[in-house]
Amino acid sequence: MYEGVVQDLIDELGRLPGVGPKSAQRIAFHLLSSDPADITRLAEVLGKVAEGVQFCETCGNVAEQEQCRICRDERREPHVICVVEESKDVLAVERTREFKGRYHVLGGALDPLSGVGPDQLRMRELLARISSDEVTEVIIATDPNTEGEATATYLVRVLRDFPGLTVTRLASGLPMGGDLEFADELTLGRALSGRRAL
Amino acid sequence: MYEGVVQDLIDELGRLPGVGPKSAQRIAFHLLSSDPADITRLAEVLGKVAEGVQFCETCGNVAEQEQCRICRDERREPHVICVVEESKDVLAVERTREFKGRYHVLGGALDPLSGVGPDQLRMRELLARISSDEVTEVIIATDPNTEGEATATYLVRVLRDFPGLTVTRLASGLPMGGDLEFADELTLGRALSGRRAL
Q1: Same-domain status, A164 and A100
Q2: Complex ipTM over 0.90
Q3: Do B42 and B87 fall into the same domain?
Q4: Nearest C-alpha neighbor of B139 from the set B188, B192, B187, B98
Q5: What is the pLDDT of residues B20-47, one digit of tens each?
Q6: CATH classification at residue B165
Q7: Any CB–CB contact under 8 A between B120 and chain A?
Q8: Residue B145, exposed/middle/buried by CB under 10 A (0-12, 13-18, 19+)?
Q9: Top-confidence residue, B141 or B176
Q10: How far is Cα B68 from Cα A28, in angstroms, rounded to an integer?
Q11: Per-residue pLDDT of chain A (198 residues; tens, 9 = 90+)
Q12: What is the C-alpha separation between A165 and B98, in angstroms, rounded?
């Protein structure tokens, strides 16, 4: 509807997740009146991403070097590995400041209907790490949804055979600050079955 | 919080209007798993926008050539000019399919507090067009808000001196499909004072 590069820009922005046609137009006109240096910076960082982002050789987290910051950190406990689906989950766990071990990023969750089996995830790398390092505990921190639960079940089955290895799963239950009344029955059911003695 | 280029991407995306930190992260991780060709296309179009977008020499609309599509179109009535604030307003009027004249894009509205006076808008170009072309009507289609109304008032005062020129303003009133009960008092007042004989 617009001419030339403006419409191209609106089209490309509209392809991004969560950016509808109205937002794409608003962002495009914002950029049209922005400092060209700002636009160039965004274009350059996109160019770098298109060339490929580096992932940690050990854990699969996004990284600047061959190893990510956490895997390079000598102070992190090497005997505990927290298994997550994506890099953003690493960040979520880090924000708790409760975890001093290391991570393993699977790169997704098992989803056979979408063609994601164990070979599409970084499962082999995880097993290799557990075999070579002296890992004593694997914390399964996949999402509490169908795919994440399926991945957790698969992991438990595979990891059961390692001698001396404890496999744990993040607790399910009521979210803190929430309201019991508004909890869905699945969450409340998990909170009940996972109740703790005080 | 992320390492390297991923955090740069999230930062740059987060600067766009309407894109908060969560959306920026979601878009960034979407791009990380996208086809590099798609990312490159977005980067390239941004690069073109940074180099500068062309505006129509006559009306100030975004254009691919020296003249925009509408100014090049011989079938458009040259005697009627619809004055709007932005290029997106041209598109809004075009969508009505009711207007067969030409446009003039001011590039904003008068807003002295933000330093936007007549010299910051394409006012001089408008007066030149009215003087040279045989313009018989100017339709003021600035936004019905404080700045738009101020701009309309200014235009009426300036254009009053042109002999044989009719100056009109878009009607204010109840939006179609709306509900009288929920109309704000300003809109309903305008609808009353602008009532038409049937």
Answers
A1: yes
A2: no
A3: no
A4: B98
A5: 999 999 999 999 888 899 999 999 999 9
A6: 3.40.1360.10
A7: no
A8: exposed
A9: B141
A10: 18
A11: 788 889 999 999 999 998 999 999 999 999 988 889 999 999 999 999 998 888 999 999 998 889 999 999 999 999 999 999 999 899 989 988 889 999 999 999 999 999 999 999 999 999 999 988 789 999 999 998 999 999 999 999 999 989 889 999 988 888 888 788 888 888 888 888 888 877
A12: 74
Residue of A nearest to B8 (CA): A45
How many residue pairs from chains A and B have C-beta atoms closer than 8 A? 143
pLDDT of residue B184: 86
Q: In terms of CA atoms, which chain B residue is nearest residue A32? A: B49
The rounded distance, in Å, linking the Cα atoms of A68 and B4 is 10
Helix (H/G/I), strand (E/B), else coil: B151: helix
Chain A residue nearest residue B35, CA to CA: A50
**Do A15 and A89 reside in the same domain of the chain?**
no
CB A37 within 8 A of CB B26: no
Q: Do B29 and A86 touch (CB under 8 A)?
A: yes
Question: Which residues in B lie closer than 8 A to residue A8 (C-beta atoms)?
Answer: 45, 48
Distances (CA, A) of A131 to A55, A124, A128, A135, A159: 21, 11, 5, 8, 10
- Residues B112 and B158 placed together within one structural domain of the fold: yes
pLDDT in tens, B33-91: 888 999 999 999 999 999 888 899 999 999 888 999 999 999 999 999 999 999 989 99
Give the residue from B49, B56, B58, B59 with the most A CB atoms within 10 Å of its CB, the best one to mutate. B49
Q: Output the six-digit token pair for B139.
A: 């339709």
